[in-house]
Specification:
alpha/beta, 10 helices, TIM Barrel, about 35% helix, 12 strands, eight-stranded parallel beta sheet
Length: about 325
Amino acid sequence: MSSFVTLSSGQRMPVIGLGTWKSAPGQVKQAVLAALDCGYRHIDCAAAYSNEQEVGEALSIRVGSGKALRRDEVFITSKLWNTKHDQADVEEACRSSLAHLGLSYLDLYLIHWPMAFQRGKELMPRREDGSVCYSDTHYRETWAAMESLVDKGLVKAIGLSNFNARQTDDIISMARHAPVVNQVECHPYLSQADLLSHCRSVAVCVTAYSPLGSGDRPWASPDEPSLLQDPRLGAIAQRYQKTSAQVILRWHVQRGVVCIPKSVTPSRIQQNLQVFDFSLSEDDMKQIESFNCNERFIVPTVERDGKRVWRDAEHPHFPFNYPY
């Protein structure tokens, strides 16, 4: 099993990358340095994580002429936030990420969500009652502006994040530069088999964020299932003398899914890369697939009428009202 996938653009994307979402200031720089030093060649970033400047500090120490790594040896992804969907804002947002990261180009730039929020400087523009201010800018308009980033050499390729199958097809139908990736929440409790199969059929690679179930998500409630503590996974891991995390990552890799596990612990960062020295049997692959219960952990929720509901479900481009 190769440690790369080849995207439709011809680029080779490492199948394990370091995720930087939720990595606190003061921690993410050391995490990126630890990852590069133990062999990672793929770092996943986003403007909305508010830590790209610190990622850039780490890159400046290890990557570039006269440094340990050449720029073309490292695959860097960033994402366009929801408040920057207006065509007039896309290039400026991309250049801002490049400046923070200290780079002249990105290997991949994604539309973070299909939903546009009101333009402006705030990440989450809200009304007085706390509700989010939406914009009706269509993601197709945003895509046209993303394509000009490729034309200008600011990014090597462009892609999607959190788009459903219909929205992905919608972009493909009008694209000059086809989307090469759709980055979505994916783990054994949300196996995304239908979306994965669909994306394969249209030459779009799937990247799994929260591939280990995002146990550290800030809004997790104590009664929610914890993937890494699942005894069924523990039993499989014991047989292979691996950790549960390594078994999950291996499951993703064998399905052809790219993974960006987040960690700031050097020993775990290293362990997460050690998934190329074993293979899961077909039976174990099927057993892990059977854990699927379509459990989405990474959708913002709010309380309405005493019930937890998806915050953005009324947005015209909310992706998860469609089955996959």
